[in-house]
Design brief:
The chain has 6 helices and no strands. By secondary structure, it is mostly helical. It is elongated, with a radius of gyration of 25 Å. It starts with a helix and ends with a helix.
Length: 124
Amino acid sequence: MDQNIFPKYHLVLMDTVLPAGLAILNRVQKGHAGKMIDDLRSSTSPIQMLKEEGSEVAQLVRDRLDQIVPGLGNPILEVKVSINSNKNNDVESISENDLVNILNRIESRLNLLKLYINDSFIKN
């Protein structure tokens, strides 16, 4: 059996089933079960509609699950990383003078930002 099948099910459960289920539960609690059935019949993508409706509450549930066990609520996804061996010669073509100009511009903007932050704290 594929060893990656359980993480895939976990992801589907947390990403689709949980928000859609919470949206259904919310509608039933509010007494809108009949309207929900009509909405599901008239929608071209009922699962997506329910998923969007329950996404905020589902995020709260996932965050709480992560507090219990990290990765339980928001599954950790595997990623593949590769290194591109093509060197970018653009970096090497920048002259020292251009680099100094760029760094000076960055420094002046950082100084403006510091002044703005200090002014906003003083006013508050």
